[in-house]
Amino acid sequence: MTILIAGLLIFMAAHSVRIVADDWRAQRIAQMGAGSWKVLYSLVSLAGIALIVWGYGMTRAGVISLWDPPAWTRHAAHLLTLPAFVLIAAAYVPGTRMKAKLGHPMIAGVKLWAFAHLISNGRLADVVLFGSFLVWAVFDFRAARVRDRAAGMRYAAGSASRDVAAAVLGIGAWFVFARYLHAWLIGVHPFA
Predict the structure, then answer these.
(1) Residue 122: which of 183, 80, 64 has the closest Cα?
(2) N or C: which end of the chain has fewer CB within 10 A?
(3) How far is 95 from 109, CA to CA, in rounded Å?
């Protein structure tokens, strides 16, 4: 569990700089340059992800169950992760109405993904992992919306065709991940 928590702390710290120290971040970017900052940010994030994956895998050896989730929560997780993937895709498809409405669809997608996994898993490691991501996403989404309002940010109206493109990409990614990659990478087959 220690490695999982260390990975979460590293990953969340990197991804929380804008929440708690946006001015400091801007100073580092001005000092280092945007490219160097992105490289450092990516390396720290990758180190955090590697520790999260390693630590989470290690928790399978000493399972600590907090509760036994009802079967319906697995079905709910399947349904909730579908729009989560669409929202994450919408973050990368320019000109979507989802981005215009939410401003930060990726963070909204992470909230849905974390919530879906939190309700459908009852191990301590799951609560630590998915609970951490859910709490982070709630605070990050709020901070991002506050920054947008303070900056007078207005996102372009977006078009239905771009929403369809994001939906097709998100649904496709969801299907491939759920059907083929989840079991291979995580060791759990969502539809088994």
Answers:
(1) 64
(2) C
(3) 17
